[in-house]
Design brief:
By secondary structure, the protein is an alpha/beta fold. It has a 7-stranded mixed β-sheet with strand order 3-2-1-4-5-7-6, with helices on both faces. It is 42% helix and 14% strand. Helix 7 packs across helix 8, helix 7 packs across helix 11 and helix 12 packs parallel to helix 13. It is globular, with a radius of gyration of 21 Å.
Length: 307
């Protein structure tokens, strides 16, 4: 299977994990195994568990990690990483890496239905199972479509787009990506059509809704620190503001100690920080990386270690 995907912030993210040769690591979004191979190559007696919900990615990662006896590939959602560990009798890990971007393979293979540039069935399912984007578009109420497009796509024309979708589906079902793209383009003002492709935000919103991406991230963050060994690192690469905001807020919460007013003579809150920052400000791609792959331009890498 052809699976072309260049890992974003590859060296920077794996360096942030501060790999111990005998440690246990999780790549929660294995994709084409770019990050996984670099991690596995730094292990001796350690162990890598590479997780992905996309069966295409699992097949490719399994093939590409064959040279590394330390690596195991598992089809699962990274939000369920604790169950993956429990099934293997693993209590804690020394590092977890998440790359929250959509792989180039998913975007470029038309049949997956992620792209608004190529005609295909409205699918967008990373796991190839469950509810499709087409089912959401054709069955959700105008209010619910508006909420999804506004919250997950951060599109100020969400209501107009949802109304246009409703009008179109009353005539006939919306079945393909280009059908939907044309409906969105006709729903927004001409000025907005000059500011990037008008379907970009709606397609992002539907993809997030179909795959429960923010739910998976929240579930992961709820459990991650508890399953991290002392000194272990969590490194997360995000690509849009909703993800990055969630990661930043949770990291800040973990890294915050006493919250008593400064005029209190002694601490009464008893709050101690759980983690420290590997680097305080996010790491972003260099100009050369962006020139090589423009899809990386919005990437942000944040990392913390357990105290």
């Amino acid at each position: 299977m052809e699976f072309n995907h260049k890992s974003v912030l590859l060296e920077e993210s794996v360096d942030a994990l501060q790999i111990k040769p005998n440690g246990i690591y999780i790549d929660g979004t294995a994709g084409g195994a770019g990050h996984s191979r670099l991690i596995a190559g730094r292990l001796t007696t350690g162990r890598l568990i590479a997780i992905d919900k996309d069966p295409d990615a699992v097949a490719v990662a399994t093939e590409r990690l064959k040279p590394f006896s330390c690596a195991e590939v598992v089809q699962a959602d990274f939000g369920d990483f604790d169950n993956v560990l429990d099934e293997r009798g693993i209590g804690g890990v020394d590092g977890v890496l998440l790359d929250l971007g959509v792989s180039s393979h998913q975007l470029d293979v038309a049949e997956r239905g992620f792209s608004y540039h190529k005609d295909a069935p409205l699918d967008m399912r990373m796991s190839r199972s469950g509810t499709t984007a087409g089912q959401l578009v054709n069955t959700l109420s105008v209010d619910e479509l508006t909420r999804i497009i506004r919250e997950y796509g951060e599109d100020k024309f969400a209501f107009r787009i949802a109304k246009a979708i409703d009008a179109a589906r009353c005539i006939s079902p919306i079945e393909t990506t280009l059908q939907l793209s044309d409906i969105i383009s006709g729903a927004v003002p001409a000025a907005a059509r000059r500011d990037g492709h008008p379907a970009r935000r709606t397609f992002q919103a539907l993809r997030i809704a179909v795959n429960g991406e923010l739910d998976s991230l929240s579930a992961f963050l709820d459990k991650a620190v508890d399953r991290l060994n002392k000194g272990g690192v969590i490194a997360i690469i995000s690509f849009h503001s909703l993800e990055d905001r969630m990661v930043k807020q949770r990291f800040n919460e973990w890294c915050t100690g006493c919250v008593c007013p400064p005029d209190f003579p002694v601490c009464v809150c008893g709050k101690n920080p759980l983690t420290g920052y590997v680097f305080k400000k996010p790491v972003m791609p260099s100009a050369d990386q962006i020139n090589e792959n423009f899809r990386t331009h919005s990437a942000k890498l944040r990392a913390v270690y357990k105290l």
